[in-house]
Amino acid sequence: MYFTNVYRNYKQALDVGAWLFIIGSACFLLDDLQDWFHYRIGILLTLKYGEKDNVDATINHIDKKQKTFFDRYRRIKINLNYLASILGSLLYLVGSVFFLPKFEDKEIVGDILFIVGAAVISLSEGCKIYRFACTSALDSNDTQFHVKNIRHNLQAIFISCFALFGGVFDFIGAILKLISIVHNIADLALELNENTFDRNYRNDNALYGLRLTRYLPNKNDQELAFGEHQDYLGFTLLQNDNVPGLEVYMNGKWFRVDPKANSLLLNGGEFIEKWTNNYWISIKHRVARVEQLRYSIVFLTGPDLNTHIETLSCKNCTLTKSKYSPITVIEHLKQKQMATLHY
């Protein structure tokens, strides 16, 4: 890939890239701290020494006379919104420090922090945009969603939209970087040439899917939250909350996978099974009945649609005759689609 060639030919590229990340993340954090300072202190000073009817104060629900529970509730929500942005930027900054070559053994930790930071920033900026649309600059008591409010808050919404999209793209970029690291580890584990996996994910026809899944509590002990299945693409990254439920099928039994804090689960799909000739298997898994609301973030990956899936030339993959006929990714997907239609 392009960036692989850059840091292979220029030894200082990783240092430069890491420092650019650090500087950019620090600027993000300073900007969020400035917003919070303006909200908490700057507007109050304006109210005390400046104009009475201050538009910023109306937008942020600042009123020296506010006494009601609803007023305090709105202030708390706004505080949390600003603090979430600060937290996301702080995670950005800490994560980017781990991108320095001297912390090479902590790079995955940095990626995870960067991913979480991007998610937090995206959510907080999305909430901020919605809040602006529900806030009238003319009437602080009007909290209904109005498109016309966007006109009054156009500058703030414009900035928040850029921050939102930046957070989303950073989130996706950090996950793609993490997947590339997973591919490099797989190359080493299978004693393959460098970029054996990554070269199948190089163009716009590679398959990526990001899902936020919600599992609802169920009183029926026999009913599953999600039925047994195998992932049918490449590697899958899974981030669970602290609510158990995931189970895997091994040796004729179902085993519970307890959630572990600050970790990601890695699962191989059917392409991994075919590539390695069953040396690595695509394990069956399901989500058992949950007693409380459960969330998980799933990132699915698959190679380019025209990639031929056939047994790799690794030693452990060729111990036995190939169990699978060569097949392209698009043919495999068509087979899965037909099987689903006839189910």
UniProtKB/TrEMBL annotation:
Belongs to the iron/ascorbate-dependent oxidoreductase family. The keyword Lyase does not apply. InterPro entries: IPNS-like_FE2OG_OXY, IPNS-like_sf, Iron_ascorbate_oxido_reductase, Oxoglu/Fe-dep_dioxygenase_dom, YrhK_domain. The keyword Ligase does not apply. GO terms for molecular function: metal ion binding; oxidoreductase activity. The chain crosses the membrane at residues 80-100, 112-133, 154-176. Gene3D superfamilies: B-lactam Antibiotic, Isopenicillin N Synthase, Chain. This is Fe2OG dioxygenase domain-containing protein. Residues 206-303 form the Fe2OG dioxygenase domain. Signal peptide: none annotated. Keywords: Iron, Membrane, Metal-binding, Oxidoreductase, Transmembrane, Transmembrane helix.
